[in-house]
Amino acid sequence: MVLVNLFLAFLRIGLFAIGGAYSFLPLIEREVVQKYNWITKDEFLDVLGLVNIFPGAISIKCATYTGYKIAGIPGVLAANLGNFLGPAILIIVALGLFTKYRNLPSIKRAFDMIQLAVFAMIIAAAFQLMNINQLIQLRSLSIIIISFILFTYTKIHPALIIIGVGMLGVVLK
Length: 173
Known about the structure:
The chain folds into two domains: 2-129, no CATH class; 132-173. The mean pLDDT is 88. It is globular. The longest helix is centred in the middle third of the chain and has 44 residues, at 58-101. The protein is 82% helix and 0% strand. The protein contains eight helices and no strands. The termini are far apart. It has helices at 2-16, 24-35, 41-51, 58-101, 105-129, 132-135, 138-153, 158-171.
């Protein structure tokens, strides 16, 4: 039964995490922490910190961690299959519909509204990842602002920004 629950939880996450990347976080937290209690809130935040240092999709890494913790390799397979299957089916169906109806004003408005909701969820997820006390420190604000400027206004690869601030964290006290 736990494999079915892992599959269904990550199927729901995959189906409803429109916008990708950080839009998954509130859904993952709701399923994994709040609904099934597979991991605690603190463990969830630790896992997010850990998975952010590895390449690849956050949802896959969270599905892999949760699946392995709950049911080993079969859990990894069940969680990741659910995570992948929903979006894959939706994309196949949506491509057919989108190519047919994409020029309708109502469809364009719907996608504009969805984009705003995804933006709000990404901001909320970013705040959940941070300790508010850390955000108000001058050093932290400087790193945030400099990273934002480098990411937004230069062609420096985001991985280099992350590696650079990580190395800075090693040498600073």
